[in-house]
Amino acid sequence: MSGTGNIVTPLPFPTLARRELGDQQLRHNLRKATHTIRDKRLRVVGEVPDWEQLRMAGAAIKDDVLARLPSLLEQFEAAATAAGATVHWARDAAEACAVVADLVLATGTAEVVKVKSMATQEIGLNEALEAVGIHAVETDLAELIVQLADDTPSHILVPAIHYNRTQIRDIFLERMPGVDASSLTDDPPALAEAARRHLRARFLSTKVGISGANFAIADTGTLTVVESEGNGRMCLTLPETLISVVGIEKLLPTFADLEVFLQLLPRSSTGERMNPYTSLWTGVTPGDGPQTVHIVLVDNGRTDTLADPVGRQALRCIRCSACLNVCPVYERVGGHAYGSVYPGPIGAILSPQMSGEGANRTLPYASTLCGACFDACPVRIDIPQVLVHLRQSGVDASRGRPSAERTAMRTMSYVMRDRRRYAAALRAARRGAAPLRLVAGRRGALRRLPWPLSAWTSVRDAPLPPKQTFREWWTREHSS
């Protein structure tokens, strides 16, 4: 894990995608799940006559936050502190993990319960706590499945989307302590009941809860978590100590701004009109809920992203995952192909900006630029625009360096500037392709070419040149 946590892919996207494409069960699971969520979203969004106005309002509010972020953060810290919370600041993943680990160790407990949180996944908190002897129990059903399987999440909203219910039953039978193997079926209510029984004792006995936050309200110091199962409510109210890890971009200026986002988020994420559980808390309330509340505000590359006038719109993201569910690339390769904790279209623009390390440079190319993600985004992040911008930035950064691709393009430019050179090149290509037609057979294309053309055929077939050009055909047909 790098200093920025789990947002740097270990291998280039093409390498990981090629591996995932070989899993037919994965593609079946993804197609079924994403289409189900996509269809639900379309139905409930269609009920809202002012949906586009809501999208524009959401984008405007988030842009206002980004324009005033330093002052709003100070306002939030003052309000939360006045309400009895303790606010901590963390520059990166390592610092955030150290703060949380110290806070948990100070309580003397060896186990914590967790609400589903992308921020804690981003910083690698579970691994950091394990390193100091603290076991973090994921209480969201999908997160629990992934944890029991020793796997990593593959979707922002549904981390276990790559499993079907039969696979989940097998995971429970093999990994869940105390499960009744004789009666457990792959029926969803039976699986949910098994998870409920497994978690109940931990809810009632664990002294420390850890959460993220969907929104942080600057003028009141309030944090908000929306969820569908009720496990979050248990983690937020039963423990004696609550530690919330919050990205600095999660702010909203006023409590009234929640009205917009509590319409946008559930419809875009789960296809629901409202979340079954919406929890809000402000500091400490004597005799009610956790009596010690800590808030860890995490940067971890967000201010670097904020500095880019085009790319900063990625910080509007409210983690709804709508872009994943409509993306043709994600549907075929799944979340693990992106390598980062943030998969799909939003991950392709967020991860490289938060950390431009290593193979993250390949993520902006993990897209067809079809634009479906922008149409689905509830806060109007123009993901295709940012993808092109990041690709251009990568090209600009390598200008002046030797490049086989640049040499090839210059050669093509020289050939195509002159009609006679171009015609001669076509004739030469056809003559060179003649023996290859025997290899290609009826396919009319080659699966593999030698270097440097192998970069093309590693991911697609190379079509052979036609036996005659259009101009040759036209000349022959009209020569009389």
UniProtKB/TrEMBL annotation:
The keyword Iron applies. PROSITE patterns: 4FE4S_FER_1. GO terms for biological process: lactate metabolic process. Keywords: 4Fe-4S, Electron transport, Iron, Iron-sulfur, Metal-binding, Repeat, Transport. Residues 398-477 form the Lactate utilization protein B C-terminal domain. InterPro entries: 4Fe4S_Fe-S-bd (IPR017896), 4Fe4S_Fe_S_CS (IPR017900), FTHF_cligase-like_sf (IPR024185), Helical_ferredxn (IPR009051), LUD_dom (IPR003741), LutB/LldF (IPR004452), LutB_C (IPR024569), NagB/RpiA_transferase-like (IPR037171). Residues 314-381 form the 4Fe-4S ferredoxin-type domain. This is L-lactate dehydrogenase complex protein LldF.
